[in-house]
Amino acid sequence: MSADIKSKLRKFHQAKWDEQLIFELDTPGERGIIVGGVEDEIEKQIGNGFANLPTGMKRKKSPALPEVGQMRVLKHYLRLSQHTLGADLNVDIGQGTCTVKYSPKINETIARNHKATKLHPWQDESQVQGALEILYKLNEYLSELSGLDHFTIQPPSGSAAIFTMASIVQKYHEVRGEADQRDEIITTIFSHPSDYSAVALKGYKVTMLYHDPKTGVPSAEALRAAISERTAAIFITNPEDTGIYNPEIPEFTKIAHEAGALCCYDQANANGLLGITRAKEAGFDMCFFNLHKTFSTPHGCGGPATGAMGVTKALKEFLPAPYVEKKKGTYTLNYNLKHSIGKVRSFYGVFPVALKAYSWLRSLGAEGIREASEVAVLNNNYLLTHIKKIKGAEAPYAKGKHRIEQVRYSWEKLFKETGVNTEDVTLRMCDFGFHLWSSHHPFIIPQPFTIEPTESYSKAELDEYLNALRHIAKEAYDKPDFVKKAPYNSVVHRINHDSFDDPKKWAITWRLYKKKHLNQN
Amino acid sequence: MNNFTEVVLRKTKVKVHPYIPNSAPEVKQAMLKEIGIKKVDELYNEIPSKIRFKGKLNIPDGIESEFALKRHVETILAKNTSCVDNLSFLGGGVANHYVPVICDEVNSRAEFLTAYAGEPYEDHGRFQSLWEFQSLMAELLDVEVVSVPTFDGAQAASSSIGMIRRYTGRDEILISDTTSPDRLAVIQNYCHPMIKITMVKHNVKTGMMDIEDLKQKMTKNVAGIYFENPSYLGFIETEGKEISKIVHKNGGKVIVYADPISLGVLTPPSNYGADITCGEIQPLGLHINYGGATGGYIGVNDDPKLVQEYPWRLFGIDKTEVEGEWGFGDVLYDDRTSFGNRETGKDYVGTASALWGITAGVYLALMGPEGMKEVGTVIMQRSQYAAKKISGIKGIKAPAIDSPFFKEFIVDFNKTGKTVSQINKALEKKGIFGGKDLSKEFKELGQSALFCITEENTKEDIDRLVSELKNIIK
Predict the structure, then answer these.
(1) Touching check for A407 and chain B: CB below 8 Å?
(2) What is the DSSP pairing of strand B253-257 with strand B196-200?
(3) How many A-B residue pairs are in contact by the CB < 8 A criterion?
(4) Which domains are assigned to chain B?
(5) Each residue's pLDDT tens digit, A167-211
(6) Can you name the residues that pair with B450 across neighbouring β-strands?
(7) pTM value?
(8) In a domain, A60, yes or no
């Protein structure tokens, strides 16, 4: 691509290997790796090891795994990696709500140290003081960033943190003898699906607040109308995925507390607020941060992750066990929390993710963390300024106001005028090496697209992304059919969806594909 | 320019962090101008000033240099003693299995490491590698359907219990009392308060499930049973067929938690009546990472009513509009998953362990049927050798429970007069991590420990352990 970035678009084509399935590489006799047998003496003393095993428990038929040589396995997966558009390779601002920022490579190197990778969770505390120090200090910094008092990294994702908060809410009211009375939880229609489903798992009836059509946020009045002595807690995300900050949040938490309900803060959207405003001053009892979003750890195609969850002093005794403490200069795991909800994950949490988050925080420091938030918000409003000008695009609600770290836009006008919908635009964006994501269920905003730039990309990169959006929007008006048949430069063409919801046809594994489509067993 | 000016400029020059490019002053100014504002702070004007954070965060200043950052974190990590520094015999949920270098090579690829939620077009490779994980696991488990991985084995167990609860419409679950206490704690929080848990006893001599106790507790109000095979305590449950018969006769379902690295040589649970096979993928190519690298698997046969109950994503394969191309997508996404519909979604799901699922797929592709047979056999041989040699020490009984075992077994130190804690402290002085102390978890076992032997423990390692134990005991 020439240096004139304002008018030219990248002539991108994704790698396209036309790669087979691993099963299609099966070549009987090939070996990917040899395990090696036991020493002669062991063979002599023990035999093949199966003498005492009842025959019913010895596997009769070998698993039908493919036999593939080592280089070919490597090649296969490297090709598949080239068929994957990771953040390291593109201007990854189109995965709104995901906060796809730079995952510093130094943290990958640090995390591969054997003094991290080869620690066993059942080792004595005295042998893992380094690991416990990292967790303790990370918890301290998260406490400072949120204003809350005690943190745990045990929940393995944001959704798991929501489930953890719901578990604490449940236990809290149980201890006070009000669990039967308080069987309702209030959240909003824009919040993550898990703010409904994880909470419902605890038996709660969930009420969703709707927003004012002008402001885009629910009003304190709406909460007042919905809340009662049956409310156990409110689960609030602020700003919502629309990027709009709800200025009435102190009233929300006041109303909830007056009704005897707890206030839980879903901070998946924290990236614009670090050092700017905190859970504590807004009145929350609990909150969580996504370490794999705001705190830079890599997304890994969908995990590993962590939802680091914090509580006020009053709720410490409900935390999942163990809690990392410091006593006389020594770090220790405290299992004696009076009303602990027990556990939400095996062992202590996703240690490598916590380690990388700690390292990222230490790299930035107090000033850097705040600068990251400010620039994320600057980048977002820069995009908003320009996207609003694209014919066919709109930013519903809060007209004339600034947003925080992301915006949910709409292609509704484009769709009405050209027939090109949000999925079509997304697939055409693939042709330029970009992602573009729509929205969580439900589509409150019609034909939605959500963009979250974070602080990681240069202005020139943001301009490149804008160029592609403008170009495709124009294409939609000029030649809509062309856009509707995209992608052209991706790994594959339009995928047939017939089988995915049909039990007679769905092929969730190779085994099922052979059975249903090739008549093989 | 004289020296003084240079110094002043150097001291007042804005330091731009390498991770925040638009912090560069000229670019920032240009952007502010295009937005039409003077300061970044104006962008926060919707936040009430009374809740604006004022002052400085009580967090240390940033470590600007990459070298200094690396040094800082590594200095803290140096305070750990790892299973590379010492010889480890710890198991109890995760274990030191060999990680083929190809596994690390693939999961450190920038593309796999940093992708997330793109479409099955530009992220085709992500979908294919996870579909291959599903398919490869299905062959190992001898089932037809496997989902993308969950957070860990404990979540797989919990999700499976949720699945059979919804399938049968019954709100009670039976759980074997030799279940891992760590996993049980997760299951208990998951079940509370909607699902009742009733524990089923085991025969203290053999470790096997107490069939009479099961018969008594398996009523028509019970959704089914959950048990682990091999048990957390290492022995192999041989009564699977009988257990399944009793549970099925009463309209219940059977969930078996199985160590996948055993399934190259042990009969897969689906073959003795398991309706759901679940477990932990850590042994398949993941370093232990202080218990922080895990993933859960859930496998069933293709009963559409049971498939409907999966909370986790299920990737499917299909054709595209171009002949010969493979395409992927989500099976039953809309009403089944909470992503698809929050109100009808089963259970809840979130960002879990995709990178580890891809890794486990690579592991199985490398190992193939022969490799899985080899590793299972070697583990059987080595662990039996270890038990035999340890048992040769006066005062020690191994295994404490007289049944066939896989990879782990109980060592009974009661007759030595020493506690497990004392023994482990002494072993540590010799550079060895002894077995997990069971004295608090299973009081009836007294001073006993769970020893784990993998394919990484050579004869030399085991002989060294035995020699040190001999010295400590006498």
Answers:
(1) no
(2) unpaired
(3) 709
(4) 3-55 (no CATH), 87-95+377-473 (3.90.1150.10), 101-364 (3.40.640.10)
(5) 999 999 999 999 999 999 999 999 999 999 999 999 999 999 999
(6) B410, B436
(7) 0.97
(8) no
DSSP string across A305-325: --EEEEE-GGGGGGSPSPEEE
d(CA B348, CA A376): 30
Q: Which domain holds residue A218?
A: 110-363
Which residues, 6 or more positions from A492, have their beta carbon under 8 angstroms from its beta carbon? B120, B121, B124, B320, B322, B325, B326, B327
Same domain, A231 and A147: yes
The verdict on A263 and A181 lying in the same domain is: yes
Q: Are strands A184-188 and A205-209 parallel, antiparallel or unpaired?
A: parallel
B65 — contact with chain A (CB < 8 Å)? no
Residues constituting chain A: 521
Q: For chain A, what is the domain count?
A: 3
Helix (H, G, I), strand (E, B) or coil at B61: strand
* Residues forming a β-bridge with B248: none
Residue-wise pLDDT tens digits, B400-423: 999 999 999 999 999 999 999 999
| Contact predicate A281/B79, CB 8 Å | no
Q: What is the ipTM of this complex?
A: 0.98
CA of A295 vs chain B CAs: smallest distance (Å): 12
Same domain, yes or no: A170 and A309:
yes
Q: Which residues of chain B have a CB within 8 Å of the CB of A321?
A: 185
Task: Judge if A167 and A289 occupy the same domain.
Answer: yes
Distance CA B424, CA B435 (A): 8
Domain boundary among A314, A347, A363: A363
CA–CA distance from B394 to each of B384, B461, B470, B474 (Å)? 18, 20, 8, 8
Q: Nearest by CB to B73, which of A59, A302, A359?
A: A359
- Beta-carbon neighbour count of residue A520 at 10 Å? 9
